[in-house]
Structure formats: C-alpha cells, structure tokens
Design brief:
alpha/beta, Nucleotidyltransferase, domain 5, 2 domains, 5-stranded mixed β-sheet
C-alpha cells in the first residue's frame, strides 16, 4: 500500500500524517524530529511533503539521504493550509499529505548543499558589510553630537580620545579582517566556477555580484520556461532595490544592466 506523508515540522518535534492512496488516514502521530526517518521507514512511502520553515532543512536532507521523494511546499502559496478555519498541527500535516497525494503541493526550491553553502558565504559577507556601515554611521553621529567635522581618517579619529568612537573603531577593525578573509575565499571560488566566470563577462558584474546571482538563482534548468526564469530575476531585482534604499544605488544600476545582458545572452530553456 502506497503511503503519502505530510510533516508539520517544528524546532524539536514533528507532527506526521500518513494517508493511503485513497486519502484515508492511516496514522497521525507527534514525534521527535530525529525519529522521523525511522518512523517513515515503516511505510511504503510514495512521497513526503513538508512546509518550508527554518527547521525543515536538517530533516529534509536526512530524508533525501535515505532515498525518499521529498517535496517542500511554499508556505505563501499553500492556500489550503493558510485559509483553513481550524489551525492545528494535526490539520496542517493532513493538508500537506493530501496535497502531496493529489500532486498539488506548491513546491519551494531547496538548493543542493553546495549552493546552500555558497548562499551562506555570500549572505554572511553582505551582513558583515552592512554591520560595518552601521558602525561608520554611529561614528558620524558621535562626531555630529560633539560638533566635529566629518571623519578625516582613522588616525584622526583615534586622536580625538572619544570612548564611543574608539569602541566602534575596534569593532570595525575586526569586521575588516573577517570581510577581507571572506572576500579572498569568495574570489577563489569565483575563479574555479565556470558559471561565475561567464557571468563576470557581463558589464557591471564583478566576482561578488556574479556569485550572488548564482547563489540566489541556483540551477537555471529548474525553471520551466524563459518567463518563469525572468520572473525570478525580477524578484531578485526587487530585493536589490531594498538594498538600494540603504545606499547601494550603484549596485542596483549594475544589476539592472547586467540582468538585461544576461537575458539577452541566455540560451532558450528546454
């Protein structure tokens, strides 16, 4: 008997619903996350569904390693769950199982481990750069409060003897070191990646922006058509627009120009 399983995953535990091919509930059970692989091993599993969340990734990878067909739903598109009048783990897991059985689960892209690792590195660098920018803004605020001119160099700032400024400078020095180390690592990755080297031939694309595009888009072949790929580019561009409001207008211009070039040069998706 084929089984379709819906998992409502939380930090430490999961609520599972198992349906047969007719949609009849075989079992519903709450169990610790680490026990889920052994639990699903008791059934002839056709497919497993999970709703995307922060805690889903370890369980998803564990189930994939065991050879199961696993689909992760897009929470904003799973209206069957979001619009349910009764909300509970039991109801949600059953809804996921039912959508999996009907092959109607709106899927969320789960990047392979190597792309996930690249995403983490690229996003970590962006985070560190943002934190450094915030500290520089704090220094300007201290100087304005003291009635001093804008910064004229690190040595001048240190000569002021202002405790807040000295504190921010110490943290900035640590961030500078981490950003340099991470940038060097990313440059090396860019030089070894054929896709990234190709992206870097587009005007406006440096090593970091090329890695950012690859990390966020992932495998181009996952898109059904050029239109769906273009939609993904637009969504990505919207995220860059938000960053542009934080003073990254130059990056926005480079991304816009680069995406136009990328779309013109991409082969047709099959």
């Amino acid at each position: 008997m084929s089984a379709y399983i819906g998992l409502d995953v939380h930090r430490d535990w999961t609520f599972a619903t198992v349906l047969d091919q007719t949609g009849r509930v075989v079992v519903q059970k709450r169990l610790p996350n680490e026990h889920v692989p052994s639990f699903v091993g008791n059934f002839k599993v056709e497919k497993i569904g999970l709703e995307a969340s922060t805690h889903v990734v370890p369980l998803y990878r564990a189930l994939v390693r065991e050879g199961y067909r696993v689909e992760v739903s897009h929470p904003r598109k799973t209206r069957y769950i979001a619009e349910a009048r009764v909300k509970s783990d039991r109801v949600d897991s059953k809804a996921i199982a039912e959508l999996v059985r009907l092959d109607a689960l709106p899927k969320s892209y789960m990047p392979p481990p190597e792309i996930a690792a690249l995403r983490e590195k690229v996003r970590r660098r962006a985070f560190l750069v943002r934190e450094r920018a915030k500290l520089k803004t704090k220094i300007r605020g201290v100087l304005a409060y003291e009635g001093l001119k804008p910064p004229e160099g690190v040595d001048w700032l240190r000569s002021l003897g202002l405790e807040p400024v000295d504190c921010y400078l110490r943290v900035i020095m640590v961030l500078n070191g981490e950003i340099r180390r991470l940038s060097l690592e990313l440059k090396q990755l860019a030089g070894l990646d054929e896709d990234v080297r190709l992206l870097m031939t587009i005007p406006g694309f440096g090593y970091y922006l090329a890695l950012l595009v690859k990390a966020e888009i992932g495998d181009v072949s996952r898109f059904r058509s050029e239109i769906t790929f273009a939609v993904m580019l637009v969504l990505f561009l919207q995220r860059i627009v938000v960053e542009a409001w934080l003073g990254m207008a130059g990056l926005l211009v480079r991304v816009a120009v680069g995406f136009v070039g990328l779309c013109l040069r991409l082969p047709r998706l099959t």
